[in-house]
Structure formats: structure tokens, C-alpha cells
Amino acid sequence: MTKLSGVFPVLPTPFTPEDAVDEPAFRRLIDFAVESGVDGVVFPGMASEVETMTAAERGQMVAVLGKHLAGRLPFIVGASHVDPAESAARAREGMAVGATCAMIMAPPQAGQYVAKQVAFFSAVAAAAPGLVIMLQNAPAPNGAALSPEAVAAVPAAVPAIRYVKEETLPCGQHVTRILTAASGGLDGVMGGAGARFVLDELARGANGTMPALELADAHAALWRAWTRGDRAEARRIYTATLPLLMLQMTFRVRATKEVLRRRGLLEHTGARAAGPRFDAGDLAELSELIATAAPTMTMHKPR
């Protein structure tokens, strides 16, 4: 398998006004990702409102992704579950429709204990032969917030783990420490945290980033600038998009969906996830921040 690197946005789950998963809208978002020039996609993740979806809905949308993507890009399937057998089943479900890797976070009961983390991931790997795993290290309360040295210790004991998605703060320092502790034993560490620290992560050796979808074209352009050595252009894109990403940190998927709506890519912005909702002042500020970021959007200019 070719090593995964670059920009891998996490696809949101669109819902109809009746709160059902919206397959046609999801296909449009997949096409936007492909056309934006990203290097792959991730689904489902926390930015997909995965915690609000039934197993049937999740399986339905993973199947839609695999069929509609049709090999145009690699995709990473989210497969976290408290039961390693269920996590393996979710990974196999993705593999069956073309996923090249499964992103998995160990359950809360594994905590920061390396032995428990190793036991969990070993069980997943045993139940899904041939699986390539990306260990997701997220901050509490969603994740265990493992130390960088603990993160590196788990794949050292579980060869199926080839990648890490690191999103605990300070992200840049943690990328450095994971890569140092792993001593070449990983195929890559990708940044998370919504690409709010992406330049620091890349400067420290991260092999990519996993932001939300609404700025996919801008993030793809940033990655291309970085890889060709144009640090000034990468910094220009980062500076223009960061204020919008900071607002997204508060409103999460609701901000993602509203930006996608204003770009003509999503009709309904309904979300199931918990969290704050926009008021009139927030929407006015969002308009200003979209205008600041708009020059970096190479397609679907916001209205």
C-alpha cells in the first residue's frame, strides 16, 4: 500500500429536514473533496457526528462512500468502538468497500495504560487480518490523551498500527516527541485539531492533516505549497483561514455545515450533535471570517 500523506478531510454527515441521513447530499460532498485536490478522505469521525448515528446509518453511509468514491481517492474508515470485536467489524465493513486504513481510538476504560491500549488494539488486529490501523490520540473527554511516548509504545507492540492521528495539545511538540520515540517505526503521524496548528505540525515532520471539509480546496493548496517548498504561500493560506477555523472550534460541525451551505454545497445544515448554536451575532461574525478566507477558496466561492 502506498503510504498515506497529505490532506484527508473528515466528511460531515448531511441530514434531511426530517433528520434522516442524506445520501445525495453526501455524494455531492464526496465530489467536492475529490475536485478540491485533497489526498484522501475520512469517514466517519467525530466531525461526522458518528456518536449520533445508528450502526445501520453508519454502515449505509460507508457503503455510499465506497461506491461513489470508486477508488478516486484513498479513504480511511473510522472504526472506534468500546468492544474490540465491534471495532474490527467496523474496520472490515470499510475494507469491504475500499478503505485502505481504519482510524481507531481505544475505549475510555483503556485510559492511559499502555498495556490496556496494546491489549485492545491487538484484539482488533487479530479479528481483522491485514488491517492497517491509524491510532487516534484525542484529548479528554473523548480520548485518552496519551503521552507522546505512550502513543509510540503502542504501535511498537502492535505492528498493524502504522499511523497516528495526534490531536492533543501542544500538537507540534507531540508530533516531534512521537516521531522521536517511534524511531522510524511508523509510516506517519497526521495532525488533527482542525488544522489550526498545521504549519507547526508539518514543520515538525507530520505527514499530513485531517481537518473538516469546508476548506478542503484551501487546505489542499496549502499542502501543495508546503511540499514544493513555498513556505510563504502556505503561510498566506494559513493566515487567511485560521480565524474561521477558530470559530469552527466552538461551533464544530454546525460551522462546517453553514460554510458548506454558503458555498452552495449543502442545502440543509441540520445537525444532531450537542453543542452551541449560532445566534445572529455569530452568523454576522461568520460572514466576516468567510470573507477573510474566501481568497483561498479556489472553487465554489461563498455567497
In CATH terms, what is the fold-level topology? TIM Barrel
Unreliable sequence segments: none
Helix run count: 11
Helix content: 40-55%
Shape: globular
**What's the total number of strands?**
8
Q: Give the strand content.
A: 5-15%
Count of structural domains: 1
Task: Write the CATH homologous superfamily.
Answer: Aldolase class I
Q: What would you call the quaternary organization?
A: single chain
Q: Taking strands numbered 1, 2, ... along the chain, how are they ordered across the largest sheet?
A: 1-8-7-6-5-4-3-2
What's the order of the H and E elements?
A: EHEHEHEHEHEHEHEHHHH
The rounded distance between the terminal residues' Cα atoms is: 40 Å
Task: Kindly provide the radius of gyration, computed on alpha-carbon positions and rounded to a whole number of angstroms.
Answer: 18 Å
Secondary-structure blueprint of this entry?
Blueprint: E1 6-7, H1 23-36, E2 41-43, H2 55-69, E3 75-78, H3 84-96, E4 101-104, H4 114-127, E5 133-137, H5 148-157, E6 161-166, H6 171-182, E7 188-191, H7 198-203, E8 208-209, H8 216-227, H9 231-251, H10 253-262, H11 280-293
Parallel strand pairs: 1-8, 2-3, 3-4, 4-5, 5-6, 6-7, 7-8
Helix pairs in contact: 1-2, 1-8, 3-4, 4-5, 5-6, 8-9, 9-10, 9-11
Q: What structural keywords apply?
A:
single chain; 303 residues; alpha/beta; TIM Barrel; eight-stranded parallel beta sheet; 47% helix
